[in-house]
Amino acid sequence: MSDDSLLREPAPRVPSYRRHRPTGQAVVTLNGRDVYLGKWGGKESRAEYDRLIGEWLAAGRCLVRSAADLTVAELAHRYWQFAKGYYVQDGKPTGWLDRVRVACRTLRQWYGHTLAADFGPLALQAVQQRLVDTGRSRRYVNYLADTIRRLFKWAVAQQLLPEPVYRALTAVPGLKIGRTIAHDPEPVCPVADEVVRATLPHLPAPIAAMVQVPRLTGARPTEVCLLRPINIETEEQQREDSL
Question: Residue 158: pLDDT band by 50, 70, 90 thresholds?
Answer without folding.
Answer: confident
